[in-house]
Design goal:
The chain has six helices and two strands. With 152 residues, the chain is mainly alpha-helical. The chain has a domain of 99 residues. A two-stranded antiparallel ribbon has the order 1-2.
Length: 152
């Protein structure tokens, strides 16, 4: 099942973020991140959201460092147990998307570093919208029935 989810996440990146699949080193980064996400217990929707967030936050660069100390593809603030997909998923589930993007309420107004004014709700939609739309248009892989696995 992990291989099917890995392929599903890579196809998502090819469809939504093709600019990050041009060079070999970029593909290697995307593949490593997709493997990391597929190794978690994320639902396919959560996995796609993690892939979308990694694309937005770091451009799928595992060694990314933010101006305020954020680390890794999901730009997790230290201190953290790790900076991988499991930690990002745990925070996404535990905090909810509002807190994950650094807000208290979805209605909060935010000015981004480049001066763009937005709301937390718009920031969240920008981060999860493409992943949710992809899932609505493409059926996620499912585990084969137990009898098929046993006969292989």
């Amino acid at each position: 099942m992990h291989n099917l989810l890995f392929a599903f996440y890579v196809c998502f990146v090819l469809d939504v973020w093709p600019k990050y699949m041009v060079r070999g080193w970029q593909r290697a980064e995307v593949y490593a991140i997709a493997r990391d996400v597929a190794s978690t217990d994320a639902t396919p929707g959560e996995g796609l959201r993690l892939m979308q967030i990694a694309g937005m936050e770091s451009g799928f660069w595992r060694r990314a460092r933010g101006r305020k100390g954020e680390v890794g593809p999901w730009q997790i603030m230290p201190p953290a147990r790790s900076f991988g997909a499991s930690e990002a998923l745990s925070r996404m589930r535990g905090q909810g998307m509002v807190a994950y993007v650094g807000c208290r309420r979805a209605e909060d107004k935010v000015t981004l570093p480049e001066g763009t004014r937005t709301t937390c709700r718009e920031m969240i939609e920008h981060r999860v919208g493409p992943a949710d739309a992809y899932l609505a248009q493409h059926r996620a892989p499912t585990a084969p029935p137990p009898e098929e696995v046993a006969s292989e």
